[in-house]
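Long-time lurker. I teach an intro course on protein structure, and each term I like to show students one example going from raw sequence to a predicted 3D structure in token notation. This year I'd like something fresh instead of my usual example. Would anyone be willing to generate the tokens for the chain below so I can use it in lecture? Attribution to the forum is fine with me.
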Amino acid sequence: MAEYDVIADAAGLREAAAALRDGTGPVAVDVERASGFRYSQRAYLVQAFRRDAGAFLFDPPAIGDMAALQESIGGTEWILHAASQDLPSLRELHLEPPSIFDTELASRLLGHERVGLGAVVEDTLGITLAKAHSAADWSTRPLPQPWLEYATLDVLHLVDVYDALVLELQEQDKTEIAAQEFEAVRTRPDKPPREEPWRRLSGLHTVRGRRSLAIARALWQAREEYARDQDTAPGRLVPDRSLIAAVLADPSSKQELSRVKEFTGRASRTQLDRWWGAIEAGRADPALPVERVPGDGMPPVRAWADRNPPADARLKAARPLVEQLAADLKMPTENLLTPDTLRRVAWMPPAEIDAASVGDALAAHGARPWQIALTSPVIAHAFVESGQEADADEVAAS
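-- Reply from a regular --
Happy to contribute to a lecture. Here you go:
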């Protein structure tokens, strides 16, 4: 087995950055995190490959300042696979691509049935990659040689995959489509934090009553603070199901909490004071959470026939036409136009139904120019054919 070295100091970074700067063509970039093990989504390994330069593995926590890498490749196109997953971790290191090519997204747009990295490499190059270490704890030090081989192979073939997909995009006349999608991914802002992230607790639907919800919130907050302090994934300390079990058990004392057998996890007993303190805080909190959070204005589609029959008719007329158009283009419907975007325009259409006004409505919900050009005539036609153009009340509400 070949030996793979990890660059872990500034001098090594500068040397590798110089080699990458003098390479040719786009640069393949990948990131390994420790999701499920660590609290943060920081990059614990960054891989880069460029023709006439070679492949390099960088240890960001050890190196610190990654500016030399940005300076060396910051002016060339970056190839990533599932870029939306890696870009936030790269931005945290101040590594920003000027443009990207996303091999996973390109594969979707081309209608490939399998879009995982291993499948795309196999389908385009006939090379089989072992994916045994994709869920490994990449904060481990030192990193085992088999893991480093896996990480290197993740970028080693990406440039060849890029070449194959570029040709395929040209053959299907989707080069411009892909370019718009890549740029949308590159420039998309990070999602803002949820207002009440504790409501994502798995099993929270079994909790009844505002006071019990306050206790669940307090337990979630206590676990979050401890997880952040320990840089450990919250679920590895105490799983969601255990927090919910503690709420449902409604223990009367710390000792009773310790006897709840469903309250498990590595920190369930070692941090018992912390969890009991959270339960007491939740019981005393005067700011009780509401049981139901208001929605975004649209009810579930299944309720549209009763709540808004014209919108229901518009959606039912447009959806199959958009799905057929996606099938004709050999791409998933959600890549042609997200279901949420279509629902919003059907729920609140423009006052005058034509391709231009529908296109403006689609643009307001974030659709790209290519999506608007292809779908707005189809949607406008469907809305008109449904016989359900916007009525006065809908226009007033908009």
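Some talking points for your students: Confidence is low (pLDDT under 50) at residues 394-398. The beta strands are 6-7, 24-32, 45-51, 54-58, 78-80, 100-102.
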